[in-house]
Amino acid sequence: MRRSNDYSLKEAIQEFLNTYRLEGKLEERKVIESWGSVMGKMVSNHTTDIYIRNKKLYVKVDSAALRSELSYAREKIRDVLNKEVNSEVITDVIIR
Q: Are 61 and 53 in contact (CB under 8 A)?
């Protein structure tokens, strides 16, 4: 028999994340961590900075040609990254 204060580890962690409203930050971190695997090694190597602010993913790259190519694929990048974490974490991608 399970007492009312017994939780599985998964339930306890989920309750902690919900209580302190950390779920969104965790999902943002997952998006940033998945950048390299989703975009590939070449893009990852040319990425100098990446962060999320107000549901916008900001990516700084050191190649003008790559910046141009990524700018054309912003919507696809957004969709792929959101699909990777199974949540709509980002609404726009800003390439700098």
A: no
Closest CA to 88 of 18, 31, 10: 31
Neighbour order of strands in the sheet with 47-53: 47-53, 56-61, 92-95
> Which pLDDT score, from 0 to 100, does residue 3 have?
61
Distance CA 33, CA 50 (A): 10
| Residue 24 CB coordination number (10 Å) | 13
Using alpha carbons, list the distances in angstroms from residue 13 to 4, 17, 22, 23, 43.
16, 6, 11, 10, 34
pLDDT, tens digit, 9 for 90 and up, residues 33-79: 999 999 999 999 999 999 999 999 999 999 999 999 999 999 999 99
